[in-house]
Amino acid sequence: MVSPFLSHALLLGCALALGSALSAQAPAGATPLSPPKPPVSVAPHLEVRWKAGLATQKVTPPQFMWMAGYGGRNKPAEGKVQDLFAKAMALEDEAGNRVVIVTLDLIGVPQALRREIGAKAQERFKLPPSHLLLNASHTHSGPILRTTPISAEEEKNPRLRHSWQYTQDLQRSLVELIGRALQNLTPARLTWNKARCGFAMNRRRDYSLPPDHPNANRVPNPDGPVDHEVPTLRIEEPNGRPRACLFGYACHNTSLGFYNWCGDYAGFAQQFLQEHRPDFTAMFLTGCGADQNPYPRRSDVVPGITDLELCMQHGRSLSNAVEMAMVVNPRPIIGRLRAAMQEVKLSYANSKRPDHDYPVQVIALGDGLSLITLGSEVVVDYSLRFKRELGNQSGIWVAGYSNDYNGYIPSLRVLKEGGYEAAAGWAQSVEERIAAKVHELFKATR
Ligand SMILES: [Zn+2]
After folding, report:
1. For residue 57, which phi and psi values (nearest 5 degrees)?
2. Banded model confidence at residue 24, pLDDT cuts 50, 70, 90
């Protein structure tokens, strides 16, 4: 029989042995970290016919100003968990056609800001406005933006003064950012594919249930429509070194409700993709996630887990999907770059309200992938519809939150059902007007 003292000594010995093993190698069952390897192309047979240029700019506010997203905020930001970034990707095809995609860890892209930057980029870099895309992650842990000049009276209010000043500075730095990405154009190989990630869930109630059903007002709705695809564009150098990726997901960046600057799950996904790759740029393009929330969301759902931990889990889950989309069965991007953007007039049910000029854009990345971008907060029905209607002609990637920020854009289904995403008061023509413009521009870029 082993004496209690000896048993304790044995256990201690095991613990010490395990400790030294841990420092030397990964624990049993774990995949050891592999040493750095020379870069290998995922598509070595593909000729290098494109050029790509990247640029990144930190856009974390210089002071703790007021935060965007939630109406119930009662004080300015108090800290920072993550920096916020603007990132630009310039692409040029063999014929010299160029497009610049800008992603922002911010709440939205105000139309006035988009128009001003588009005009400056055309004047300074000869970039047509239709060949510029500005997309925001819709993080609710970023600053309030303001494009309306402030009066002398408003100047005294730090909340208004800071948001106006911040937005003015942002405008200037985004024009510089676009210029830097265009200056950095060097030969690149482009591939794309998609993976899946499952944390987005439809946040609207199930409107098919009768009002007296016990679950009639319960959310989220596991049976509601979602778009779990993670389309990913991979940019690699001629030697195969991955240089950048652009990835999409259709879900609100609302894991967090605290008073710290943070990119939310999209900020963490970008961070995780970049942190083990030197000189690599990961960019997040928000999809049609207006009626989608992260699931689970907020720590009162999962005991013992903080909001921030849940947010990081979602970021990890999304970055894992992107890792796969970057290497599995790469689809080549071959052919010409074409882009078209037009505004379509959207009407309100109240005919006295003026129409809204709503931007629709199609960017054909060669023959196999078309990026459809829509303004403001677009519900998931749009991306499902365009993939269904156009997906037999091209890979279809639909982004919302692009080039405009003017509240929610419901589908006809959501508009008829009612609820939060239908409250802006659009006329029932909203979906068909947008869809007609998407089809027209898609055809024009074939
Ligand atoms: Zn929103």
Report:
1. -135, 130
2. low
Report how far ligand 1's centroid is from the alpha carbon of 415 (Å): 16
Rounded Cα gap, residues 53 and 326, in angstroms: 18
Compute, in angstroms, the gap from residue 374 CA to the centroid of ligand 1.
14
Question: Which residues, by Cβ under 5 Å, contact ligand 1, an ion?
Answer: 377
- Report yes or no: 337 and 93 within 8 Å, Cβ to Cβ: yes
The pLDDT value given to residue 345: 98
Output the pLDDT for position 64.
96
Q: What is the pLDDT of residue 18?
A: 40
What count of Cα atoms within 13 Å lies in the side-chain half-sphere of residue 369? 19
Q: How far is the CA of 404 from the centre of ligand 1 (A)?
A: 13
Which tokens belong to 367?
Answer: 């023959």
Can you tell me the distance from the alpha carbon of 92 to that of 367, in angstroms, rounded to the nearest whole number?
A: 15
b/e for 372-393, b at 16 or more Cβ within 10 A?
Answer: bbbbbbbbbbbbbbbbeebeee
Q: How far is the CA of 159 from the centre of ligand 1 (A)?
A: 21
Mean pLDDT for the chain overall: 93
Residue-level pLDDT at 6:
39
290 Cα–ligand 1 center, Å: 6
205-251 pLDDT, tens digit each: 999 999 899 988 888 899 999 999 999 999 999 999 999 999 999 99
Q: Compute the distance from residue 229 Cα to the ligand 1 centre, in Å.
A: 20
Strand duo 408-409 + 377-378: pairing: parallel
Contacts of 337 (CB under 8 A, 6+ apart): 91, 92, 93, 95, 97, 98, 99, 363, 364, 365, 366
Q: 206 C-alpha to center of ligand 1: Å? A: 19
* Side chain identity at residue 320, one-letter code: N
For residue 138, the CA-to-ligand 1 centroid distance in Å is 7
Instruction: Copy the structure tokens of residue 258.
Output: 């605290």
For residue 242, how far is its CA from the centre of ligand 1 (angstroms)?
Answer: 32
Averaged pLDDT for residues 123-133: 98
Distance CA 274, CA 280 (A): 6
